[in-house]
Amino acid sequence: MNGIDRMAAVATTEFRLAFRNRWVLLATLAFTLFALALAFLGSGPSGALKVDALTLTAASLATLTVYLVPLMALLVSYDSIAGEIERGTLALVLATPLKRGELVLAKFCGHLAVLAMAIAVGYGIAGAVIAAVHGYTDAGLLAWGRLLATAVLLGAVFIGLGMTLSGLPRQTGTAAALAIGAWLVLVVLYDLALLGAVIVDQGGAFTKTIFPALVLANPGDAFRLYNLALIEATAPIAGLDGLAHTLPFPVSSALVVLVLWLFASLAAAWALTRRIRP
Amino acid sequence: MTDAAILTVEDLTIRFGAVTAIDGVSLSVMPGERVAVLGHNGAGKSTLFKTVLGFLKPAAGRLAIVGAAPGSNVARRAVSYLPEQVVFPKGLTGTEVLTYFARLKGVAPKAALPLLETVGIAAAANRAVGTYSKGMRQRLGLAQALIGAPRLLLLDEPTSGLDPVSRHEFYDVLEASARAGTSVLLSSHSLSEIENRIDRIAIMAKGQLRAEGSLAELSRQAGLPVQIRVEAAAGRVEAVQARLGGERVNGQSVVLTCRAEDKVGTLARLAALGPDIVDIGIALPDLDDVYRHYSGIPIEGAAQ
User: Fold this and answer.
1) pLDDT-derived band at B303, boundaries 50, 70, 90
2) What would the mean pLDDT of B13-28 be, rounded to a whole number?
3) What is the pLDDT of residue A51?
4) Residues in A touching B103 (Cβ below 8 Å)
5) Could you read off the pLDDT of A158-210 as tens digits, one per residue?
6) Which of A159, A167, A172, A226 shows a CA-CA span of 20 to 30 A to A47?
């Protein structure tokens, strides 16, 4: 019981701080504006297609989310352990009965609550505006809801990664650099490297066997494949992502990948925090 | 060293790789006792505190807090900690910081909030910590440490950077806590600061305990010499030095060093010099000299 109250104290304090330093406001604005921009400025709902605007925007927003949500998740979490070491509060906090595992889990919950709220409000507002202007279908609402829920899961994975990276150095600056590096590698360079390999391979064994598994192993790609595969099952949009409907695995395996990443990152964050001498 | 001790340290050795940070230190703190660990930077004070908190594992020796292992639940509930420099989140108010730590310690926040009054920052309770002065932040840190009336307060250089008035009030709060039964183990650079504020002193240098006892005991045992500065009449300084020995410090003065019990005899010899002497000054060893004596720093100006 005490442990729960201790964790609640940590999580609510993280949540409160994110509000106070206007992080929540910034993130919510970013999510809302990007979603609306895709819906109204992009080529998505042109009216010529027989697919509703929500489904179309969900498909393009899935690609943008892969960049935006991990970045926001790393921004909210990179400071969580290294920052407390630097400010001297980690020694104070760990001198209380709070366990290190409790600290990691509670901070994760606090960060996730902040990010989930920003995503829900941002994408929620954008979805409501799109539905109000262009109308909606059940399939469109489902695609939008699926996008929102899996975006929170993707965010959870990157919060766990951010906390892991935060447990490595003793300085906030180094943790920030590691977080940016992780974003670049996982979100940008990984896909570029795979595409390069596919071009070199020219449809050989690599492209047919290893490539799909490697794509699925990346949390951002797993998120995008899951959303696009299910959208394409209901709406015939061609050429968004070739792999989404030729994937040699069941669609749900993408979710399994995300959950595995989440547990692995939390375990790593916990293991690193146990080693720290505050 | 009895079982009633709040903190028992026996032959504690801490190593970081090849470096021995603490080397065979034994120390105990009794209920309601205020003990100061003195030493310059790198003497091992902070390392000792971090071991008491359970953050570092001893290479050898034993350490117990109210009979429990450091870092155990019993020990964590008994100990409160305040480091020298702590920066609470700027966006939280004093009340929120105190509520946060009360919940971490399993104490009802309502029972903890009057501590803001105790340390004298109740007026700023609802202001953001970012607007606090250094002294106010340290007072908030002390309030945090006092939550739940801990058995042992562990304060690592708590008053460094505080102005003399804040420092005075800081020790007043510690005194009240000690009267209520809380033991205090604090570290400091300066012996003069803790005079009359502390029951017992342990002096550390290079990871070893060099001396332990009350201030009076330490001063007596140190047996530090008395310095007598003799100012000679114009042109007579050579003659004075020839008669008395001692050390010339400038064109006019000679400094004599003698043991405390020889002071009167030496003054009698000085009196015999008559008009060759213009003035006499006597410097008794002060508290910082006592500290330097035990920590192995040569005493300034002393003729060795």
Assistant:
1) very low
2) 92
3) 65
4) 5-6, 8-9
5) 999 999 999 998 889 999 999 999 999 999 999 888 888 888 888 777 777 88
6) A226
Tell me whether residues A97 and B76 touch, CB distance under 8 A: yes
Least CB-CB distance to B89: which of A5, A17, A98?
A17
Query: A-side interface with B, Cβ within 8 Å?
Result: 2, 5-6, 8-10, 13, 16-17, 20-21, 87-89, 91-98, 277-278
B28 pLDDT above the threshold of 60: yes
**Is any Cβ of chain A less than 8 angstroms from the Cβ of B88?**
yes
Nearest Cβ partner of B77 from A17, A87, A97? A97
Average pLDDT, chain B: 88
Query: Predicted confidence band at B254 (pLDDT cuts at 50, 70, 90)?
Result: confident
Domains, chain B, in order of start with CATH, read 7-219 (3.40.50.300), 225-284 (3.30.70)
Asked if residue B176 has pLDDT above 90, the reply is yes
Specify the pairing of strand B152-155 against strand B34-38.
Answer: unpaired
Over residues A108-112, the mean pLDDT reads 97
Domain region containing A243: 2-275
